[in-house]
Specification:
150 residues, mainly alpha, 2 domains, two-stranded antiparallel sheet, 3% strand, globular
Length: 150
């Protein structure tokens, strides 16, 4: 996949959650026609987007409408999602973050991760998780920046 200006690493947190900001970026970029169609558009609202919306108990379409209505910061959008779907405890957020940051490492996603690594010719990189894969595939190096500590 290409490096997409304005698309942040999945490791970057909004509030207490990883990935949420990346999903917001994809929604905004897609609305502007700046999200590469072949690489990203078929999975909008699915995969990690779907998992994130499920965790927050909000519909992807409702979140998209809220994002595209404009005027709300990422933090305000997260507050809306938590108000709409119900608050999450610190423990729930910690479990969410841990699950997402480790997806593909010795779990049911490992086979898909290995396939993606091979397709992108990233065999020589220290890709251990799907988040690592996304970063390396988009020309970011999470190992060098220790992105998971952010």
């Amino acid at each position: 996949m290409p490096n997409v200006p304005g698309l942040r690493s999945p490791y970057v947190k909004v509030g207490r959650l990883v990935y949420f900001g990346r999903m917001l970026d994809k929604i905004r970029l897609h609305a502007r026609g700046a999200l590469p169609a072949a690489d990203y558009v078929p999975n909008l609202g699915k995969g990690f987007d779907g998992r994130c919306c499920s965790f927050l108990r909000v519909g992807y379409d409702a979140l998209t409408a809220r994002v595209l209505a404009g005027g709300a910061s990422d933090e305000q959008l997260l507050a809306w999602a938590l108000e709409t779907g119900g608050a999450r405890t610190d423990e729930e957020c910690e479990i969410w973050n841990g699950f997402m940051m480790k997806r593909g490492w010795r779990d049911a996603g490992a086979e898909i991760l290995a396939k993606r690594i091979a397709e992108s010719h990233l065999e020589g990189q220290p890709v251990l998780t799907m988040f690592d894969y996304l970063d390396f595939d988009e020309d970011r190096d999470p190992a060098a920046t220790r992105a998971w500590l952010g």
